[in-house]
Write a structure and sequence with these properties.
Layout lengths: L2 H6 L5 H12 L5 H8 L3 H13 L19 E9 L4 H9 L4 E6 L6 E7 L2 H11 L6 E8 L8 H5 L4
Antiparallel strand pairs: 1-3, 1-4, 2-3
């Protein structure tokens, strides 16, 4: 990262990090609850949250889903090797494929890693073999079926809110 890009990053202090950890633990928490949990006033919590959103630190709010119960019983990590001619366009196309939950450009042997959720193996097969491998830029794919998922809350472990 260039020095200029680093200068553009918002300065986060311990209070900001506690707020982020509390939100990560419960994205539906009220401002009053966040203020209480982080030992700050409601006005301070509100102002900090506004600043964190305006600066792009908080991109939005989400819900953790039990994908199995939601009918998406198969999860796969798909490693993709690509031709390098128009990778940005290909990443955008990959993001639009059914069930693609994450697209990450990576270093190493593979160029892209996808997290794909599907109802069953037939649906997963269709996404990988019929849709993904038909993109002009895709040279090869290698898939791994996820047997069990654990999503630790990094900020909550690093910067406990309470």
């Amino acid at each position: 990262m260039s020095d200029r890009a680093a200068d553009d990053l918002p300065k986060l202090d311990a209070v900001d990090r506690r707020l982020l950890a509390a939100l990560e633990a419960d994205g539906r928490a009220s401002v009053s609850h966040l203020a209480e949990r982080c030992h700050i006033s409601r006005a301070t919590a509100y102002a900090r949250l506004e600043r964190l959103q305006a600066s792009g630190v908080i991109l939005g709010f989400t819900t953790r889903i039990d994908h199995q119960r939601a009918g998406l019983g198969i999860t796969a990590i798909v490693n993709v090797t690509m031709q390098q001619k128009s990778w940005r366009h290909a990443l955008a196309e990959m993001a639009e494929l059914p069930g693609v939950a994450m697209v990450a450009a990576t270093t190493g042997d593979d160029d892209v890693v996808l997290l794909v959720r599907a109802a069953d193996l037939t649906a997963l097969r269709d996404v990988i073999l019929e849709r993904l491998q038909n993109l002009d830029e895709v040279r090869s794919t290698r898939s791994v079926i996820v047997l069990e998922e654990h999503w630790p809350q990094l900020l909550a472990k690093t910067f406990p809110a309470g």
